[in-house]
Amino acid sequence: MRFLVLAAFIGLAAGIDNGRGVKPPMGWRSWNLFGADVNQQLIMSQMDGITSRNRTVNGVPTSLADLGFNDVGLDDNWQLCGSYGPNKYTFHNADGFPVVNKQRFPDFIAMTTYAHNLNLTAGWYGNNCICSDHCSDITCYQGDVDALMAFGFDSIKLDGCGEERDLDLYAALFNATGKAILIENCHWGGTVPNATWCPWNYFRTSGDIRASYAAVVSNLQTVIQWATQKLSTPGCWAYPDMLEVGCAHGPGGPNDPGLSFVEARSHFGAWCVVSSPLILSHDMNNNTISDAIWPIISNTEAIGVNQAWAGESGNVFAQSKTKTHIWSRSTEIGWVTVPSWQQWYKPINSTAIAVLVMNHADSANAITVDFSAIPGLASSASYKVRDIWAHQDLGTFSTSWTTPQLPSHDSSFLIVAPA
């Protein structure tokens, strides 16, 4: 394993190679539903939920962890806000070590040990937004890294609110520990990779998502440029934010109205077809919600598309010339204008292509997939089409396939291959 070294030693920035994020990471993080209302008991209960086998896949008791959702991450509000030391840091002490709110999180080591005993990894959060800190020298960077190691965390989300925004430095310090840490760059599309530089394992392409279809579709569009430039790749994935599946009435209040079943399914399928990390955020111990979304998040064929790599991360290849306007029900986002429908593709092996057909319009539509337009699909007299949502083969077709009347905001998720 090669480790990133400080740019000062080599004269330029190098890409991270820590062995993490070879496939799009899968897991859970607290923010999209619980926001700042977090504590140690809640996070440990979600660890129980993600490993619970009280639902089935093909008749076999299966947990979300069995399906690959193995990292449980804490987001903001673990820190004790204050004014510390002569520099008046807001949540680092004078030595740069982060100050933990012991009333909310009395024992981080016990929490991460609990995760490890369940064969999970534990995620932390830095450069916090709540009482964001102005410390920008190496003291606080090193303090964060030392704290992560002392507490036993395995991954970290580095937000964009404070002054610790040097991701080269963070990566170098993490790699110097000898422990491979999965790093999320959450700079909202402001710090992005190039062909030779990516000192993180996945990077936010957008602002924060909300639990509305308009927000989902808006964030989805932000991955297109990175797929087109082939800069969403193993170990450096483009990421349009956490999943909002099952997350109605989160920290956004009225800005988080929630998704219908078909909207949630389209959301999940879209994140799968563009190779986004799949980070859940719903309450895994709410049986009503979990039962409702289980057919979506336990779809092994959809997850298989997400985890496959055949040289491309997934991109849009066809879309309507007409536009539709979707009200987000959020003053933050407002109206979102997108093509009335879009078709996305991702190669999953040397012959088969996954295709997601999304109807963004406010009415049902029958949408035709022209096989000759699918990038990378080999020429053939006929093609096999499989329905990922229904887990069934639809038959063999010569030049195209047309959806049934696809309801507003619904999708068809297919695998197309030469017959």
Distance between the termini: 42 Å
Please report the number of helical segments: 11
The fraction of residues assigned to DSSP E strands is: 15-25%
Structural class by sheet pairing and helices: alpha/beta
Rg for CA atoms:
22 Å
What form results from the Cα inertia axes? globular
Portion in helices: 10-25%
Q: List low-pLDDT spans.
A: 1-14
Kindly report the average pLDDT value. Answer: 95
Total strand count, please?
A: 20
User: How do the strands line up in the largest sheet?
Assistant: 9-8-7-6-5-4-1-10
The description of the largest β-sheet is: 8 strands, parallel
Q: Can you offer a commentary on this structure?
A:
This protein is an alpha/beta fold and 419 residues long. The protein has 11 helices and 20 strands. It has an 8-stranded parallel β-sheet. Strands 11-14-15-20-17-18 form a 6-stranded antiparallel β-sheet. The N terminus is likely disordered.
Keywords:
single chain, 419 residues, alpha/beta, 24% helix, disordered N terminus
Task: Compile the SSE list and pairings.
Elements: H1 7-10, E1 26-29, H2 31-34, H3 40-51, E2 55-57, E3 60-62, E4 71-73, H4 108-117, E5 121-126, H5 138-151, E6 155-159, H6 167-176, E7 182-186, E8 202-204, H7 213-221, H8 224-228, E9 237-239, H9 261-273, E10 278-280, H10 287-297, H11 300-307, E11 315-319, E12 323-327, E13 335-339, E14 341-347, E15 353-359, E16 368-370, E17 383-387, E18 392-397, E19 400-402, E20 411-418
Parallel strand pairs: 1-4, 1-10, 4-5, 5-6, 6-7, 7-8, 8-9
Antiparallel strand pairs: 2-3, 11-14, 12-13, 14-15, 15-20, 16-19, 17-18, 17-20
Helix pairs in contact: 3-4, 5-6, 7-9, 9-10, 9-11
